[in-house]
Amino acid sequence: MASWANLSDIQGLVQLGIDQAKLITDVVEDVHSTVVKPINSVVNLPLEGHIRALVYRIIREGYRLSSAGAEAVFTRLIPMVDTPPSTLQREAMLAILNGIWGDHLLESNNPLAITMSLRNEGQPLPLEKAVLQNALSQASGKVLILVHGLCMTDLQWTRGNHNHGAVLARDLGYTPIYLHYNSGLHISTNGRQFAALLDKLIREWPQPIEEITIIGHSMGGLVARSACYYALAAGHTWPEHLQKLIFLGTPHHGAPLERTGNWAETILNSTPYTAPFRRIGAKRSAGITDLRYGSLVDEDWEGRDRFALEPTDNRRIVPLPPDVTCYAIAATLGAQTDDLKNQMLGDGLVPLESALGIHNDPARCLDIPESHQWIGYEMQHLDLLNQPDGYQRIKDWLQRQP
């Protein structure tokens, strides 16, 4: 079997393919109806609408039968076939699919949907003291949690033979644990689940907890902030141990690509001939739309059309967690501070000011001190995972007394 998928994955891909075919059929039918409508107003074709509806009903029934047939086949085959070990290619494929359609995968019970877990070397860690003691024989009281970004996986913290967690374990004695999650879900959904996992982790940790540090890359920093918010609301005790929070290219105030997508949807919806194509954009995940302005809490999306035009930032203000020392590392494609690339592109995905928590509205500024900031020039978003100067700054910060 291919190294990028197992039989259950193929079942999920077939299911997702049928779902996307249904979507395209809906778009085609809407376009067909829009084009024919003005013709019918001039030339009366009484049977056209009935014939058209029958054709599309037959097509959808074909999808339904195909889906049912595939489900029956895979239900019989999967128990008979050994599941091969996961590979980096498979994990990367699942991460991308979950980032783009993760909420749909979960809602449709697709086996491709990722279930959140804390992992070590790509394997889920059962949160039981004896199991943790066995799996983490060198566990210390210094716990380091690393949270990946959109469309990524915990295994991708290793880049260019460097892994922040592994090197900080070697240099400073931290025990690294990696969060693995469906980045297509709402950030607040992942934040609440992450908070609950950490609450259980510290109760089962095999050593007395000395400190907890979280490093979040990109969306991972937003998930970490959301987790802190929900942990405090739920009365969890782990924030009492959280000393430092380091953000790597985190879009605290959103990313322009999603805002561009929001405007594109509005333009598509402005005429009856292009409106059907809005359906396609409206299938992008909740996690992606949360990146429009960096939404952290349920109130930012509950009861709202998340695809409606939002020209202004109206999300709830969520300050940095109290009594936690926060740091921000940003990257920019520019060669100097006033380079136009800093203003327009940032690191290619996240603008410089968003990564540093700076906002035009003073109430929304995160006020991270300049001594707690570092900017990497002529660097792109993923370089934050392994750029030597960036790692050295992280190491220096972690060696400081909080």
Can you give a write-up of this model?
With 402 residues, the protein is an alpha/beta fold. It folds into two domains: 83 residues; 223 residues, Alpha/Beta hydrolase fold, catalytic domain (Rossmann fold, 3-Layer(aba) Sandwich). 45% of the residues lie in helices and 12% in strands. The protein has 13 helices and ten strands. The strands form two sheets. It has an eight-stranded mixed sheet, with helices on both faces. α7 links the parallel β7 and β8. α5 crosses α13. The longest helix is centred in the first third of the chain and has 36 residues. It starts with 6 loop residues before the first helix and ends with a helix. 36% of the residues are buried. About 10% of the residues have low confidence.
Summarize the topology.
Elements: H1 7-42, H2 48-77, H3 88-107, E1 117-120, E2 123-124, H4 129-135, E3 142-147, E4 158-159, E5 162-163, H5 164-172, E6 175-180, H6 187-204, E7 211-217, H7 219-234, E8 242-248, H8 256-268, H9 278-281, H10 286-290, E9 325-332, H11 340-344, H12 352-356, E10 373-377, H13 388-399
Parallel strand pairs: 3-6, 3-7, 7-8, 8-9, 9-10
Antiparallel strand pairs: 1-2, 1-6, 4-5
Helix pairs in contact: 1-2, 5-13, 6-7
